[in-house]
Amino acid sequence: MGRKIVHFDSVDSTNTAAKELADKGEEHGTVIIGEEQTAGKGRLGRSWVSPKYKGIWFSFILRPEINPMLIAKVTQVAAAAVVKAGDEMGFDFKVKWPNDIIMNDKKVCGILTEMSAELNQINYVIPGIGINANLDIEDFDKELKEKASSIKIESGKAVDRKELVGRIINNFEELYDSFMADGKGIDSIRICRDKSILIGREVRVIRGGQTAEARVLDLNDDGELVVEWEGGRIEKLFSGEVSVRGK
Ligand code: BTN
Known about the structure:
The chain is of the alpha+beta class. The chain is built from 6 helices and 12 strands. Biotin binds near residues 40, 48, 57, 129 and 130. GO terms for molecular function: ATP binding; biotin--[biotin carboxyl-carrier protein] ligase activity; DNA binding; transferase activity. Acts both as a biotin--[acetyl-CoA-carboxylase] ligase and a repressor. This is Bifunctional ligase/repressor BirA.
């Protein structure tokens, strides 16, 4: 993993570039890094602010032989790789299931996993990781500032971007191999559970345009969020948008 790195000084989106390369046959394990993204993509069709030399914007090309249903686990592997790297460098990262990394209640990293599959067979999976490493307060607009921040702002010191991305790639390789070996990604899920910001909290869940309130009980060994709805019914969520109430 990461033995081949394709580096762009400027790119529209590392996910888009990775997909184009994968469509042309690029092999498993190649990493695409951009110093800036001119059309960075977030989840749910949002854009992702990606100023030059300030963040870490990168994507993996993976060709796993797994059921497409398991794609959410790739996002958890990526989240766990980021959190572990933060731990190694002394940053207190938390995970907001399923794909956000949080510092002091603010989002400092997001993950967008895209896939190409045909007839239940994966062609490739592209997890894209965006880390707000050294962004300054003026890089965020008014609305974004309320929810998002950077590692530099939250920790008070600039981040060695090279060290952080190197550690994430190494951790990703290890955790991905472990996922391929057990088919469950239990090592990654354990990290995400230990560092979960949601377990025990009152949350708002948005599904199919509907909002409902619940309490998070656990992140189970299948990587599902176990919630108790108001009224006591317990359900396992496979994916979704969850926000902590009052935030
Ligand atoms: C989100 O939280 O909405 C996901 C954000 C994902 C951003 C990263 S930056 C690298 C990769 N390329 C993109 O265009 N998006 C992802």
